[in-house]
From TrEMBL:
Residues 530-881 form the PEP-utilising enzyme C-terminal domain. Its EC number is 2.7.9.1. It catalyses: pyruvate + phosphate + ATP = phosphoenolpyruvate + AMP + diphosphate + H(+). It comes from the Bacteria. It holds the Pfam family PEP-utilizers. Residues 20-57, 65-301, 317-370 form the Pyruvate phosphate dikinase AMP/ATP-binding domain. PANTHER family: PHOSPHOENOLPYRUVATE DIKINASE-RELATED, PYRUVATE, PHOSPHATE DIKINASE 1, CHLOROPLASTIC. The gene is ppdK. Catalyzes the reversible phosphorylation of pyruvate and phosphate. Keywords: ATP-binding, Kinase, Magnesium, Metal-binding, Nucleotide-binding, Pyruvate, Transferase. This is Pyruvate, phosphate dikinase. GO terms for molecular function: pyruvate, phosphate dikinase activity. Gene3D superfamilies: 1.20.80.30, ATP-grasp fold, A domain, ATP-grasp fold, B domain, Phosphoenolpyruvate-binding domains, Phosphohistidine domain, Pyruvate Phosphate Dikinase, domain 2. Belongs to the PEP-utilizing enzyme family.
Amino acid sequence: TQYVYRFGGGVSDGGRGDRNLLGGKGANLAEMASIGLPVPPGFTISTEFCAVYYDEGRAFPKGLRDEVATGIAHIEGVTGKTFGDPADPLLVSVRSGARASMPGMMDTVLNLGLNDETVQGLAATSGDARFAWDSYRRFIQMYSDVVLELDHRGFEDALDIAKEDRGYFLDTDLTAEDLQALVAEYKGLVEAQWGKPFPQDVHDQLWGAVGAVFGSWQSERAKVYRRLNDIPASWGTAVNVQAMVFGNMGDTSATGVAFTRDPAKGDRAYYGEFLINAQGEDVVAGIRTPQYLTKASREAAGAKPASMEEAMPVVFTELAKVFDLLENHYRDMQDIEFTVQQGKLWMLQTRSGKRTAKAALKIAVDMAEEGLITREEAVARVDPAALDQLLHPTLDPAARRDVLTKGLPASPGAASGAAVFDSDTAEKRAAAGESVILIRVETSPEDIHGMHAARGILTARGGMTSHAAVVARGMGRPCVSGAGTISIDAKAGIMRVAGREVREGDIVTIDGSTGEVMMGAVPTVQPELAGDFGTLMVWADGVRRLKVRANAETPLDAKVAREFGAEGIGLCRTEHMFFDAARITAVRQMILAEDEAGRRVALEKLLPEQRADFIQLFEVMAGLPVTIRLLDPPLHEFLPHEEAEFAEVASAAGVDIDVLKRRAAELHEFNPMLGHRGCRLGVTYPEIYEMQARAIFEAAIAVAEKSGSAPIPEVMIPLVATRRELELMKAVVDKAAQAVFADKGATIEYLVGTMIELPRAALMAGEIAEVGAFFSFGTNDLTQTTLGVSRDDAARFLTTYVERGIYARDPFVSLDIEGVGQLIEMAAERGRATRPDIKLGICGEHGGDPASIAFCEKIGLDYVSASPYRVPIARLAAAQAAL
Ligand code: PEP
Ligand code: MG
């Protein structure tokens, strides 16, 4: 096996396609060299050797030593200098370079090859003794830190003392003699700490540095970074050994970093900073304030020190040409490192630059319009998940934050407002024009009005699919859930966190994109949906096959969904209409009724309300499909839970308080999610579904008559496990339809279908499709029931599960494709075998998750349905899945 690949001086053993073998840095250095850019000569020891290094017990076999000797000879040949030559020494840098960039995680050693003899040669050939001694002291300091792993503070203190003693402010004030004295002091520090003198043999230095770079792959911080960024340990890092070039050889030398476009806003302008007479680490270290690259950016910032464009106009022009060339060559915005040595430009690195969501959009659209990339490539370039940043107000990044705690980022966006601890107060204060943040231990369906009234929601308990999270996402309200370190005393109106108190009315800010909870108001910035965003969405719609619908029940949410491009409603959860403050009393009467007759009296009161809801929804959706799910949650959710509420509810509902309590106790369940809910309600109380079906058909006919175009309602039965359940419920719906049609003397088209959200339903999908005209995969419940993990309680241990690699991601956020995915795929196949034109969609939270959407495309579902604010994300993800 070959482990060493050369570049520079007209040779390139590799290129941009060899990223896996040479790492990002090595592949791009070889590529830049091959297109004739000025790259200091060097070689890359491949990532493949990283595994060998660990297998060999961190040793270097003879074969590698021979290859490295050839690599060094290559550098010597190109530079005309010899490694270790006291008269004219070659110096090299040794840097890591993994496949995926791991900024700041891995090690680098510069100026390697200096010792007590070669420093004299460097002083003589450069004619600059100060530079030579400065390079040597930098080398000792870096080598001691990275390779010998000595405590770096001693070196920093010695440097500070040297400056103080002489009354200097800048490192550059130190003279050659000062630096020579500092080198002696550094060598003393090494010997004292390490027990041996600083290595003088340049080959020992080299192998020490190569070993340290390979060793840094298994450092703690690298391991943590890999875990957070899903980078496999097996990839390994490469090591790049390259001839040094010097940005610290006086005022015609400099070093800098640049982006070919603005990484924050995406504007087409060079962007970056540089330092005259400095080495790379000085720019990063922040000891001296770097200067702007261009005159325009210096002026825009109102800064004084000359920009590179002004201070070094000739090299700057050359550099600008390289920027354009690299951008054209890689067809993407580049992040570049360069050095100028005595007026000569050298390129040290190029890679695709990291950017904000806003910049990603602008750069993709601009590049397509410039003809640099195709529209499909532009669509493929933008990370759908990053759009989240753009669809909600976000915290002003420049603003100060007083962070109290962190919970789960349950629904994106940021909001500030007065802390309130119950939903009625939230509604009252909001009605009076105040911004409020609703803070609850956890929310229940009774909090819907408070959540609607609030700008944001914070809960102490609950995961990513808890009630608060799902409802908040649906409403587009920012939400932080499961902030376990807060304790809430709702009665007293106090939240305690981190030894501090927040009282009702105190202003707090939540960031649902990061999970942060802050004291006080933090200013926000508003999203922009037109412009580049709109353009990219149109391009995305041109390539996607999957339709995108929204989960919405209020006319307002439906309007938002349409503005974001929803092509129908995939899930209208009717229970959300039951919780409306105006009708909760009738709902409770229905639940408290002794018999069917009593229930029907209450349902008669609800009928006109439901009908009015559906009329509004059908009007907003104007002829688009609307899937309406009949009542799903266990009935006890509609009854009060707290002692104080019982009396109030009893008198409102006109029943005795003891009757109410008895009924609540009867309805109590140990496992309500597996209890009397879904179609089980319809089976036991068919009159509820009958009323809902009537309301749907009467509304559809009313809208058809008024607007001339009939909506096509898709009536959906929840939590079906068997064909017989669906049959019975379909009969109820069909009978209601016939009754309404007879009554109104008009008919409309409709479909009856089911959710597939239980494993048994997926298994029996072939049979169930004989009855149902469509399936909508309810992946929230399907995940809960397949994994046997409660969606409301999982947050407590799922984080650990993800950390331990048991699930790659939270399965309530990103579909467990391996497991739950099999059930979906199988149900889709079996359903189609029975009914080839069966409509298939997904309406669980996964309908807005890009990885899950890619799976839906792969198995050929017809649509995905996501909460309104995730509709654009779903449109883009669906387009990428189709590419
Ligand atoms: C589901 O279970 O995936 C679903 C969409 O229904 P809900 O979240 O209302 O239970
Ligand atoms: Mg469900």
